[in-house]
Each structure stands twice: as structure tokens, then as C-alpha cells.
Amino acid sequence: MKRTAWKLLISATLFLFSVSAVASAAEVRPATTQEWESLVKKAEDEGEVAVYATDSIGNTQMIWAAFQKRYPKIKLVGTSVGRGSDLFPKLFSERRAGKFLADVFLAGPTAIHLNLYPAKVIEPIPPILVHPGVTDLSKWWMGKHHYVDPEGQYNFMYESALYGPPLSFNTNVINEKDIKSAWDLVQPQWKGKYAVLQMGPTQGSTAMTYVYHHPQLGPKFIEKIYRDMEPTFFRDLRQGTDWLSSGKFPLCFLCRRIDRAALQGLPVAELDPYAIAEKPGIGSGSGALVLMNRHPHPNAAKVFINWFLSLEGQIAFRQANTDEFRIGSLREDLPQEILPPLARRRKDKDYLLINRPEWMDFKPIQALLEQLKKSK
Predict the structure, then answer these.
(1) Mutual orientation of helices 60-70 and 311-319 as an angle, nearest 10°?
(2) CA distance 314 to 333
(3) Mean pLDDT of 193-205
(4) Residues 154, 156, 161, CA angle at the centre, nearest 5°?
(5) Cβ contacts of residue 329 below 8 Å, gap of 6+?
(6) 165-279+360-375: what CATH class?
(7) Residue 188: CB partners within 8 Å, gap ≥ 6?
């Protein structure tokens, strides 16, 4: 089915799905209905919950509206001022002024790991997970919750995004059926035909982490792209897509929003992770959450986090990302009908889990890129 058809199907199906919020529980046992109702009542007495979110998590207004519909007496005060580079300084500026306004922070796991985790401004998540649909580990991929911190309790990753080598190509020049491996696209005939994103010294990339640590790719593959293919670099993401779609460069590494460009009728595509020999990856560029310390609304924060990680909340998250064809949830029970094919995990595939605490340090990759830059 074409992607445009999938987009329509996803939107229609999401509209039909209204999953009831189920009672929640204490850390070691399911709570009774009375216990959950008591928690909700305390949250309603607090009156609101403050959630900070980077715009990378999707259409936040759809998520806020879904929560507000479920809990109309708990006002959700959402703050989203753009990327993490905008929101993190705002948060830290407030806290330096003695204003502890945020209860929950939603952002990419790497951004959280680099900004909030080392600042020691977040609290453990496991003690507040009380919803039976959240604490039931059989509902989650690999039968566990996924945390991106050494202690396994602060940086909760809920998003499941499919990753492959971040290679895009002009479909007028390259036939995807001829590509059996990512290595097919770093052969001598493609020298000088690459547009490549020039990453800044402080930037990170989940896709690049996938390549660097992949046993079938690794640093040698990055060397091929950044040096041996004699690429032309770009910084403006639109520039890369423009060059690719016009055919000026038939190949692009780390181009973004290729699915969206293809929907607009441009002759571009990103390499299908399921169509090549290299193991696909599961990771998250934007879907993680933390509980801020000294949060002003402890009960409402608890209700929001449990709701957001429940089936209903994760359906709302998917609904906020209907134009993303590789993004799903690490929950196992999202209805398949609301997930496009590339967002569905396959039982016949072994995946490389990308967002690991030991892989969060991007400095080795940055050092490699700097070395390759100097060697040109």
C-alpha cells in the first residue's frame, strides 16, 4: 500500500481508537481501583501538571488534548518552545532563579542524557510506575522497560523508531532493487556523487551511532562516506534534500525528512532497512521522558507519566506523529492497524538496540569525523 494511503488509514484508525485508562498500582503490585481513584483525586486537588517537551516528539497539542480529555480536572500546562537547544536553557535559567516549574520533561534520550542526567535534576521513574498496563513487562519490547542511563531508572525511552544506514538516493538514478547491502553504495562508481551532512562539533545523531557501533558497518563505513567518496558537505537540511531531488547528487548521507519529500512527489527514497543485508536498528531520536526533581505537582506528575506510558497515551503519541513512517512505541500492544509497515517490529528480525548507556558518549564519533576532515 502506498504511503499516502497508509497515512489516511492511520488517521482514520486512530480516530476510532479510544482506549480506556485502566487502574494503576504501586511499584510491586497492581493498585486497586480505589487507590488509583485516590491518586487521581489528589492530582485534581493539585489542579495541574507542567510538562516541558521539545518539538521533536511530534504534535504536542494532540497529546495534551488527549490527556485533557481523559482528566479534565487536571490542567495540563505544556511548554514547548522548539528544540532542546531552546528549552534546556529555559529550564536551567528558571531553576537558577529558584523557580521549579516543570514536573515532566519529554525529549530525545540523547539530549536528556547530555543535559538533564549529568545535572542531577531528575528523579527515579520506577517507584512512580503504577499502571498495570505499564508495570506489566510483557507489554513491552524484550519484556522490559528501556532506560538510557547506567542505573536504569531515570531516562525512560518509550519510542521505537526503525533505523538503517541513513542513505538516501534519487530514484531516477538508482534502482533500490539493485541494492543488497549498504556497502553497494560506497563503491568507486559513486565517488564524488554524495551530499553529506556536515555535523557540528556538539551535535549528536542516533543514526550515526547506529552506523558507528554496527558490527557490519562501523567506523570503516563512515570513513568511506566522509573521505573516500569525496563528498560535498551541507549544513542546511533543506539543501541536502534539494540537491538529492534535483539529481545534482544522486546519493545523500544523513538527509532528513525523505519520506515527507517522497510524499510530495519528489524522486527520492531512503534505504529500506528490511531490504538490505545489514541488521536493522531500533532506537529513539526523540521519545524519552524524565521526572524532574523538586517537581511542584507530585500526584499529577504521577498520573501524567502513567497515562502517557499506558496504551492510551502511546496511541496519542503515535497520533501526534502520523507523518513519521518509522516511529512507533516500545509497547508491544499498539494496534498494528495504526502503525505503518516500517514502524512495525517484525518477529523474523533481530534488531540492534541503539540507545544504550555505553553508546551515549558521542565524542569518539566526533573525533573520527574531525580526523577525517583533517585528512582530506
Answers:
(1) 150
(2) 10
(3) 87
(4) 150
(5) 158, 159, 160, 287, 314, 317, 318
(6) alpha beta
(7) none
Write the pLDDT tens digit of every residue in 260-307. Answer: 899 899 999 999 999 999 999 999 999 999 999 999 999 999 999 999
List, as one string, the DSSP characters of 280-347.
Answer: PEEE-SS-EEEEETT-S-HHHHHHHHHHHHSHHHHHHHHHTTTT-SSEEESBS-S-GGGS-GGGS--T
Residue 107 host element (H or E): strand 104-107
Helix or strand run (H / E) with residue 52: strand 48-53
Amino acid 328 reads G
The pTM of the whole model exceeds 0.85: yes
Closest by CA position to 166, among listed 19, 273, 44 = 273
Q: How far apart are the C-alpha atoms of 329 and 145, rounded to whole Å? A: 12
Q: Write the single-letter amino acid at 84.
A: G
DSSP label at 183? Answer: G
Cα-based distances in Å from 66 to 291, 315, 318: 20, 10, 12
Question: Cβ contacts of residue 225 below 8 Å, gap of 6+?
Answer: 186, 194, 196, 231, 253
The length of the chain in residues reads 376
Set of cell numbers at residue 288: 524519552
What residue spans define the domains of the chain? 3-161+284-345, 165-279+360-375
The amino acid present at 21, given as its one-letter code, is A
Cα–Cα dist 329/223, whole Å: 33
Question: Where does the pLDDT of residue 80 fall: very low under 50, low under 70, confident under 90, or very high at 90 and above?
Answer: confident
Specify whether domain 3-161+284-345 bears CATH 3.50.50.60: no
Q: Which stretch of DSSP H or E encloses residue 246?
A: helix 237-246
Q: What's the rounded Cα separation, in Å, for the pair 112 and 121?
A: 11
Return phi, psi of residue 300, to 5°: -65, -35
Question: How far apart are the C-alpha atoms of 126 and 108, rounded to whole Å?
Answer: 19
**CB–CB of 289/305 below 8 Å?**
yes
